[in-house]
Amino acid sequence: MHELPITEHIIEICEKHCREAGARRVRQVKLVIGDYSGYVGSSVRMYFDVISEGTLCEGAQVEIEHVRPKLRCPSCGRLFERQLLSFACPDCGTDGEPTEIGKEFYIDSIAVE
Questions:
Q1: What gap in Å lies between CA 26 and CA 45, rounded to an integer?
Q2: How far is 104 from 87, CA to CA, in rounded Å?
Q3: Cα angle vertex 54, ends 53, 55, to 5°?
Q4: Per DSSP, what are the bridge partners of residue 112?
Q5: 53 phi, psi to nearest 5 deg
Q6: Angle subtended at Cα 56 by Cα 52 and Cα 60, rounded to the nearest 5 degrees
């Protein structure tokens, strides 16, 4: 349910961008959503479709790039995705440490016409 207010804000940003560009409508919005961001892409897309009705964003295509979380090996520096039941680096076996990769949530681009 917390996707509703963030989606409302995305629509506000898109409409502002559209007006500033002198365009008549938003055609496409590209979002980047990390798996550990706390937001569910399908929920954002569903809310966008519902609450954009009657706005400059109505009918806009929502594309979502999902970012999988990665760990960083403190020994060799490799970035890697954690395997089930393991934090071990695939190169050297040292347990990886958390990074910010996978926590992203932002608008990558807005296309207007």
A1: 15
A2: 21
A3: 95
A4: 26
A5: -60, 130
A6: 65
